[in-house]
Write the structure tokens for this entry.
Amino acid sequence: MNLGLDANGSGRSAKQTRHMVEFPSAVAERLGVRIQLLRTVPELQQAEALLRAVWNTPDTAEPPLALDVMCALAHTGGYVAAAYLGTAMVGVTAGFRTVGDSLHSHVAGVVPGMHGRGIGAAMKSHQREWAAEAGLSSISWTYDPLIRRNAYFNLHRLGAAVEAYLPDFYGPLDDGINDGDESDRLFVSWPVHATSHTPEPLPDLAAAVPVLEPDGNEEPVLRAATGGVLRCATPVDAESLRQRDPACARRWRSAMREALGGALDNGYRIDGFVRSGWYVLQRKEVSK
């Protein structure tokens, strides 16, 4: 299956070819998803419209990634790709090369109603193939630490490592999804040349000290960060909470910044995320 890898990667080394085998397009094939790089203006216009729909961006606001930027990325060797089911475009992802032989995945979105069908995994698999073909060593991106499904996908399923907590990283956003909220993000890194990911066992969640947990009304409650192993809660559905109760969503944002960001600043690292909605952290000096 031709995934439209960057033609500039011709003449790849034996080492790069070996990595191409290690990141097969079978992920996309198994899921019935076709991934291709975008090059033409009509394709990129459709991609911009899809991202507007995913972010629920009004016509009067800037889209998550503007058409002119995608055109520039596609023309200069950056990464702009779409996922298709049949002829329907169902996902878009774009990024740029950085210093340090890395691809920074700036934006990725899947159309509403298509989550949980492996489209995101197929797009990440394609990013890995493209990055390996380009001779890059890692892929980085940011995500909202409050959103459970993204935390579970990034940390548990993919095995990305959290590098930093970035308060209000993008400044004020009016893209639809993030209206009225500060843009705190976790910055993660994902190695290109890893053949597979098997999540390592996490410490016993019951024995971990909670630094942030919900009360009976789903309000965030901060606790003192004591002990070698911590756990930090997330709201059940941060996106719907932002629409339903913006004030409560802002309280969660502030509490997460203090609890999770503070723990990272104080020598803890995030070891993983469990499906029930908890980050698990350990002090660096006691980790294996």
In short: Residues 22 and 196 are 8 Å apart (CA to CA). The two ends are 40 Å apart (CA to CA).
